[in-house]
Design goal:
seven-stranded antiparallel beta sheet; nicotinate phosphoribosyltransferase; TIM Barrel; alpha/beta; 2 domains; single chain; about 20% strand; about 500 residues
């Protein structure tokens, strides 16, 4: 293969320090120490109120496929960093642990695990970089798409961002995630094939410019695609030429028993142009023709255009969606929450002077609590072996940082666990549903989330509390760390 080729699979898609740590575990007889890691994020992008979990299917494909090829081993040997025994360990490597995960399309909030990995320390360590890459990006884009679709109201949103995506691999992941988040279709034909997403598109300005006149270009396109004709009307002058020419072609199509589907605006003041365009089409008897708009749209611009009365039926969103332009990264982290000592799993905690970076110890489950109207009332983070059922007895959850804040759920509420087994003993035990079903899950959960959590400005913070047992464990470990630090402080005379 050419040395310039980019390979998007393989065990070396990881950070170098994962391998140095693995080598160190082997050298210190810790390679088989059992551990639990959890993947979560601390802050919702754009100061929003929620995220949509995405990327699990690709993450499972990666876990199942991890193998170090002969070429990989040869490259690592050439670095002169690793012991021969470690390279032999890698030659036989495969993931043999367990993974529990939030199903794709589920709403997720800060500090809740999207994935829980239980495996040997070395195995779990190797997964970190790739899992974060896959889950972070797709969750980010699904969430951005959801916000854009919420701003659009009943108008359909089409994902048109392939040409501005972060590489071809980014384009594929973005198209998939955007569909989960609510987009109705994509311009990415490969994504349509691979993920069964509806594909749509019109034409570019180059089509119009390739003909001697705009009217000729419109007529040619209508003849070529009479069942799906949408005309781009802003190549020259939208109001003086583009829309009048589209009206001519619309009437000609009617005479042939056909229908012009839409006109597309791609520049200028979309509020003013869409209202003028609607008036002209209606006056011409073409009230059935839809108006499709694009041009660097995002949720804020769409919201403002709708507030100004823009007459737009369908929104084509590209760059600002597939790059999540306003908040281009989800700060997901992958933290150790438990490790064995003499065969016993012991909770682990990282304590920071920044309270938000102090971790919550122990393997955990998320319990989603619904009120008697079916709306989401809050989430409870509990230890994995806890059963949380407010129907049996009242359940109190505590704020992780502020001891005086708590919430109690009575017997009228119901709770359901969200993390499900997806890998056991290295074998996949979960069959991902079709993408349309994942999308439906996201839409159903969004419908159960109150609008206060969907605001773009000052979104209400959704309650995620700790069970009493987990709260007490966290407080006890923080106190133990504090006591240890005090005991280790140097003593100064006098």
């Amino acid at each position: 293969m050419p040395q310039s080729a980019i390979h998007l699979d393989g065990a070396l898609l990881t950070d170098f320090y994962q391998l140095t740590m693995m080598g160190g575990y082997l050298a210190n007889n810790k390679v088989d120490q059992q551990a639990v890691f959890e993947l979560y994020f601390r802050k919702v992008p754009d100061d929003g109120g929620y995220c949509i979990a995405s990327g699990l299917e690709q993450a499972l494909d990666y876990v199942q496929s991890i193998r170090f090829s002969g070429r990989d081993i040869d490259y690592l040997r050439s670095l002169s960093k690793f012991a021969p025994s470690f390279l032999e360990y890698l030659r036989e490597f495969s993931f043999r642990g367990d993974i529990d995960a939030l199903e794709e399309g589920s709403l997720v909030f800060p500090n809740e695990p999207l994935l829980r990995v239980s495996a040997s320390m070395a195995e779990a360590q190797l997964l970190e970089t790739a899992l974060l890459t896959i889950i972070n990006f797709q969750t980010l884009i699904a969430t951005k798409a959801s916000r854009i679709c919420y701003a659009a109201g009943h108008g359909a949103v089409l994902e048109f961002g392939m040409r501005r995506a972060q590489g071809l691999d980014g384009a594929m992941s973005a198209s998939r995630a955007a569909y989960i988040g609510g987009c109705a279709a994509t311009s990415n034909v490969a994504a349509g094939r691979d993920f069964n997403i509806p594909v749509q598109g019109t034409q570019a300005h180059s089509w119009v410019m390739s003909f001697s006149s705009e009217l000729e270009a419109f007529r040619a396109y209508a003849r070529a695609y009479p069942e799906s004709c949408a005309l781009l009307v802003d190549t020259y002058d939208t109001i003086q030429e583009g829309v009048p020419n589209a009206i001519i072609v619309g009437h000609e199509m009617e005479a042939r028993g056909e229908s012009l589907r839409a006109v597309r605006l791609d520049s200028g003041d979309l509020s003013f142009l869409s209202k003028e365009c609607r008036r002209m089409l209606d006056d011409a008897g073409l009230s059935y023709v839809k108006i499709f708009a694009s041009s660097d749209l995002d949720e804020w611009l769409i919201r403002d255009l709708r507030a100004q009365g823009a007459r737009i039926d369908t929104w084509g969103v590209g760059t600002r969606l597939v790059t999540s332009h306003s908040s281009p990264a989800l700060g997901g982290v992958y933290k150790l929450v438990g490790a064995t000592e003499q065969g016993v799993m012991v909770p682990r905690i990282k304590v920071s002077s920044n309270p938000e970076k102090t971790t919550t110890p122990g393997a955990k489950q998320i319990w989603r609590i619904y009120d008697d109207s079916g709306m989401m009332a809050g989430d409870a983070l509990a230890l994995a072996d806890e059963q949380c059922d407010p129907g049996v007895s009242p359940m109190r959850t505590r704020h992780p940082h502020y001891f005086y804040l708590h919430r109690t759920y009575s017997h009228t509420f119901r709770a359901e666990p969200l993390l499900v087994p997806v890998v056991r003993g290295g074998k996949r035990v979960y069959t991902p549903p079709p993408l349309a079903e994942i999308r439906s899950r996201a839409m159903a959960q969004l419908a159960a989330l109150r609008d206060e959590h969907k605001r773009f400005i000052n979104a209400d913070i959704y309650w995620v509390g700790l069970s009493e047992r987990l709260f007490e464990l966290r407080a006890r470990l923080i106190e133990q760390v504090s006591a240890t630090e005090k005991a280790d402080e140097p003593r100064h005379p006098g």
